[in-house]
Amino acid sequence: MTFMDVLPVLLWSDVLVWLLVLAGLVLGALSWRNLPLRAAWRRVGRSRPGMASATVLVVFVLIGLLDSLHYRPRLENRDPGQPVAYAIEVLSVLDAMASPLRTRNEKTYSGPLATRAYAKESVEVREADGRVSTTRDFPRLKFGGAHLGEAEEKRDADVLQRVLAAEALALAVLGIASLGSACLLARRQGVLARQAWNRLWKGETEFAWNAVLLTLGFLLLVWLPVLALCVDYHVFGTDKVGQDVFYQILKSVRTALVIGLVTTLVTLPVAIMLGILAGYFRGWVDDVIQYLYTTLSSIPGVLLIAAAVLMMQVIIDTHPQWFATAAERADLRLLSLCFILGLTSWTGLCRLLRGETLKLRELEYIQAAQAFGVADLRILLRHILPNLMHIVIIALVMDFSGLVLAEAVLSYIGIGVDPTMISFGTMINNARMELAREPMVWWSLISAFAFMFALVLAANLLADAMRDAFDPRLAGAS
Amino acid sequence: MLAYIARRLLYAIPILIGVNLITFALFFIVNTPDDMARMQLGVKRVTPEAIEKWKTERGYDKPLFVNGKASGAAMLTDTIFFTKSARMFVGDFGRAEDGRDITREIALRMGPSLAIALPTFVLGLFVTVSFALLLAFFRATYLDFWGVVLCVAMMSISGLFYIIGGQYLISKLWRLVPISGYAAGLDAWKFLILPVAIGVISGIGSSTRWYRTIFLEEIGKDYVRTARAKGLSEITVLFRHVLRNALIPILTGVVVVIPLLFMGSLLTESFFGIPGLGSYTIDAINAQDFAVVRAMVFIGSVLYILGLILTDISYTVVDPRIRFDR
User: pTM of the full predicted structure?
Assistant: First the structure.
């Protein structure tokens, strides 16, 4: 496939995701120039749980970024005279990479690594004398373990062989990575490679290399076998319509990241601006802004979200002409959910920033700046904003996990993302009746919960590490 | 004190008006009644007559703020804003899509909601405060470390998992209590015990961690050192000094939710089939019953503001230094 064969599609959430990456880089660069913040980043780098969870999060983010490059493939054109037509289906780079997972759909439920379906069906069997009879049996899957052919009993041996090969590869990669980082460390510190190796594993380095390497090793050991298996098996089974659960999980990651990060991004400017203005100018500005956020925060969050999402749904449903593809409609719903979640969550940050600004404006250096006749805007941007950065950073990471969890609940209630968009919430919602089935179907639900747990746990641990590092009250204590 | 409460109640009025305006804007200006009618009647092939009929039936055919056709006071009263929004201040929420009176429904459903929310709240508070005190007592030991790890892990698990897992384990596998349902009177206990237990467990993670931090902050203060220097046992110090002084930050988070208990929990009630206000709201959301959602938003805000006032009052009770009657 060449570049000309596709029509790039820029969804609004893609734009925001990449803007977010850019903003993250700019914010990182800015805070690196600020000495106290740089010290705080160093403290984060020293924290072993923090760096281990950051490694996990980086993997999630990479999956999400791959899933944020969208395009529409060109349709096969038999008639050369006709204009080029593109498929109505919007795919992402991740879809292209995972196309075996995406396209190999079974008929219905099948267990993890299964070669046969989960429920009995009437199957036609051709007997030795040529007669065709129907019996009830578990039908063979179309794709799960298809390469085995008739020799299904070889599945266990095949799985074991692939797992072992993948583990060997994982260990090799881990070994090279740790040797490489030891050598790098040795060159930077000017010591022997052996000493650097010892320091690395004893945790005597400035940066928590041992945590990163161990986490990386763990991830490789778990995920290389899964990758080796997923091309020919459904590692986490298939759902009701036969779609691979592993593929759904991969797609859910982006939705969760967009909800968790874009929400904060869109609220950040409002919260920062209003918070600073209220704290700095006081008087009637303060009264108005306080009234605004007190009123908004008096409405219980879920209800405000429910009301706003219902209204959004009405707008989307009554204006079908706005959207060229279903993906764009789902995307707009996702974005509006982000805005709505943001509407309810900016008040907390705004209150914090107002309080801190009130404190800062009484400090001598601000009063000196005022006495010198520095313009208010300049004081706000140069002297107040940089000193509020730690609160913003802490709020950003602290909100993330809550938002990811909220998405699942909201989608369950029916006011979350579009039902056609794959997310942890819609997966759980689709699978909720499966535990009541006989025999029970557990893999879809458990996989969704397990991955959500991993994501949220990593986010919580990183948030803790960053709060400890950035909060000046806590930084002195540890 | 009374003057203070009166002042706070007066202060609540502009906020309630603001809430009312926000909901009004959301439900009538962002989406005109025409849009709502089209949504309810189906987007395609809907005649203007059908829309008009739908609007007249529900009283949405009036002008938004000022009725030019009417005269006198009716100019302001015969409008959507007055009949649909302003009437909420006197507890008149109108009718739901199915024609039932919302005010009556709410009064009926408060009981079951409270039957679940109150035990969950009280038990949850007791369990988390005890657990946090335990962790504070064994601070800087392995017990504390793993306790915090457990808390972080527990708060990373989705609330849906607790409910689905609990229902599966207790009701389906072990068949101890019914999966869902509700009975009036004393028989309710067997329907209540599982949701209450799940509610308590799912709240342990974050609250315990929060209370532990508060306790540890108090433990570092001088008066605690003095108490220890007097020779008081650690238990006495914790219960008589630390716990009592930590009450203020704990109250901030706790008292404010007490009035909201009436609203019930959306998730728990809908999973366990309890006919409370939470499941009422969810049903309304799923049926896109705007009148009910609007009513619930308004009631929720009233209760929240009530909670804020209660919080301030409770401060004066636990801390005699705080006085509001200036």
Answer: 0.89
